[in-house]
């Protein structure tokens, strides 16, 4: 017996079973027929919208119809799989053929190469842009598109998409420019020199302590064993000092920025990327950092 009273689109629930809704059932049949002919969810939604005989379905609703075994009279639940539980809208062979087609599409699908998924805000509706890859015979086109348009049969948001490779290059270049500006070199150099100065101060104190220990040993104030132990302790506290110039810091930093900086490395730290309505890069924000990297880079280039 059925263990639900919720009838899917195309059925009514009545007296413990599902009965066919004669108004909606033709739409379900059309969805399966269009899909078996090779059409995708969005294209099927457009066909339904264009034909007055059918009821409009959004792409995700088309997908749900294709996936639902109820349409061939089959019920799959925690107790098992049961056929002929109620009248079918499509045959078992048509339903299973649709599942084979869908499985083949998933097998052929490869992960997107887009590197900034869920980081870019739509300039019109503020949704997080999603990936779209168009594979041609000899090349692949990558885009970031508004998810509002993917979930509807027509464009409902004015923003259609932006070339992924161009945007990714712009984001990486902007981050490289920001992190290798002269002001940042100066700050790093200042920090390193301060650390070196503190180390020199420690070394100076250690030298004085060496002299004091020698004088105490000479005057008989400490014995040889105590002298040896305290000298060893001072040596452990003292570390060799390496001098480093601002030029060396700059060169080392440039090498890291140019050779090691990648979007994969930056991705966990990027909070949000903004683009303008004319598809130019408008903002890069890092997590827990209120500064807009794009504007900061522009200011530094002016200075």
Strand content: 5-15%
Task: Estimate the mean pLDDT confidence.
Answer: 84
- Terminal CA distance reads 76 Å
What is the N-to-C succession of helices and strands? EEHHHEEHEEEHEHHHHHEEH
Major sheet: order of its strands? Answer: 5-9-10
How many domains, as an integer? 2
* Rg from alpha-carbon coordinates: 34 Å
Structural class: alpha+beta
Classify the oligomer: single chain
Q: Per the principal axes of the C-alpha atoms, what is the gross shape?
A: elongated
Give me the count of strands: 10
Runs in which pLDDT lies below 50 for 5 or more consecutive residues are none
Biggest sheet, open or closed, and with what strands and sense?
A: 3 strands, mixed
> What's the total helix number?
11
Percent range for helical residues? 40-55%
Structure description:
49% of the residues lie in helices and 14% in strands. The protein has 303 residues and is α+β, with helices and mostly antiparallel strands. It has two domains: 11-108, Putative Large Serine Recombinase, Chain B, Domain 2 (Hect, E3 ligase catalytic domain fold); 110-191 and 249-303, no CATH class. It has a three-stranded mixed beta sheet with strand order 5-9-10. It has a three-stranded antiparallel beta sheet with strand order 6-7-8. It has a two-stranded antiparallel sheet with strand order 1-2. Strand 9 (270-275) and strand 10 (281-286) form a beta hairpin. The longest helix is centred in the middle third of the chain and has 37 residues, at 182-218. The N and C termini lie far apart (76 Å).
């Amino acid at each position: 017996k059925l263990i639900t009273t919720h009838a899917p689109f195309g059925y009514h629930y009545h007296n413990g079973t599902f009965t066919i809704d004669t108004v909606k059932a033709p739409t379900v049949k059309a969805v399966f027929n269009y899909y078996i002919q090779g059409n995708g969810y969005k294209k099927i939604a457009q066909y339904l919208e264009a034909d007055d005989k059918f009821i409009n379905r959004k792409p995700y609703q088309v997908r749900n119809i294709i996936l639902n075994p109820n349409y061939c009279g089959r019920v799959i639940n925690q107790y098992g799989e049961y056929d002929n539980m109620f009248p079918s809208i499509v045959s078992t062979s048509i339903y299973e053929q649709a599942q084979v087609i869908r499985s083949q599409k998933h097998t052929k699908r490869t992960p997107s190469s887009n590197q900034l998924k869920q980081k870019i805000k739509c300039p019109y509706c503020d949704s997080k842009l999603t990936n779209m890859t168009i594979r041609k015979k000899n090349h692949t086109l990558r885009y970031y598109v508004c998810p509002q348009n993917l979930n509807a049969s027509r464009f409902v948001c004015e923003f259609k998409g932006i070339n992924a490779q161009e945007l990714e290059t712009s984001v990486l270049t902007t981050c490289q420019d920001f992190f290798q500006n002269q002001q940042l070199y100066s700050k790093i150099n200042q920090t390193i020199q301060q650390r070196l100065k503190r180390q020199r101060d420690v070394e100076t104190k250690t030298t004085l302590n060496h002299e004091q220990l020698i004088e105490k040993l000479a005057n008989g104030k400490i014995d040889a064993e105590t002298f040896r132990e305290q000298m060893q302790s001072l040596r452990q506290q003292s570390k060799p000092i390496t001098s480093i110039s601002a030029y060396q810091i700059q060169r080392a930093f440039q090498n890291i920025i140019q050779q090691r900086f990648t979007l994969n490395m930056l991705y966990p730290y990027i909070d949000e990327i903004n683009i303008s309505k004319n598809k130019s890069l408008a903002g890069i924000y890092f997590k827990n950092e209120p500064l807009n990297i794009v504007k900061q880079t522009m200011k530094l280039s002016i200075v």
